[in-house]
Write a structure and sequence with these properties.
Elements lengths: L1 E7 L10 H9 L2 E5 H7 L7 E5 L4 H12 L4 E6 L9 H7 L6 E6 L4 H9 E2 L5 E5 L7 H13 L3 E5 L9 H9 L8 E6 L7 E6 H4 L8 E5 L5 E3 L2 E3 L8
Parallel strand pairs: 1-4, 1-5, 2-3, 2-4, 6-13, 7-8
Antiparallel strand pairs: 8-11, 9-10, 9-11, 12-13
Length: 243
Amino acid sequence: MHKLYVIGIGPGDYEDMTLRAERALKESSVIIGYTVYVDLVKPHFPEKRYLTTPMKREIERCHMAFQEAQKEETVAMICSGDAGVYGMAGPIMELAAQYPQVSIEVVPGVTAALSGAAILGAPLTHDFAVISLSDLMTPWETIEERITAAAKADFTICIYNPSSKKRADYLQKACDLILPYRAENTLCGIAKQIGREGQDTEIVTLRALRDTKVDMFSTVFIGNQTTKKVQNMLVTPRGYQTT
């Protein structure tokens, strides 16, 4: 049986890659991915053969991975974070019926919600929702409904893809949807360039977040009504101190 790994490589830093992911990459003869992610792993596995496609060519990339696996190669399809969270595990599985001779194994990784939370402190200790603001494949009307529902339920909200050149005001729109249900001084965190050069964090209020500029390499955390600042870190208590 031909082998195709779908691997989450974590936020970018080699130390944040799981041992299982490292082992699967060592076993693979071909590593396929979006150019930016391939550049993150290439220094650590220079002997491998690499194939890349740019953004918006994900399905082409999936077919490429299957076709390489059919050549009796062990292939790794890589994604940042976790392959099953806004990653390539979904499309690979959807196409799997076309390549029945290829065995698929999904290798989990550390998604930005977890790695970003770690450098901010502990903002996700209680129930939370993860929502992407990218409307490339999800209608904005649906995203609005999900943001509003999470805000009403007092979830801590982790936002992926908060802004881009074409979506410069989307984080502002999201804050406007949340503000009717959260106090203006609700604490929020921004994790930038997680696990990469230039890593940084910022803690702001929800009102200030509305006017804060972020980019696609930022992950935003919007606290719930109990989220607080402890020694310059963001913490959402679960209630251990009161039990």
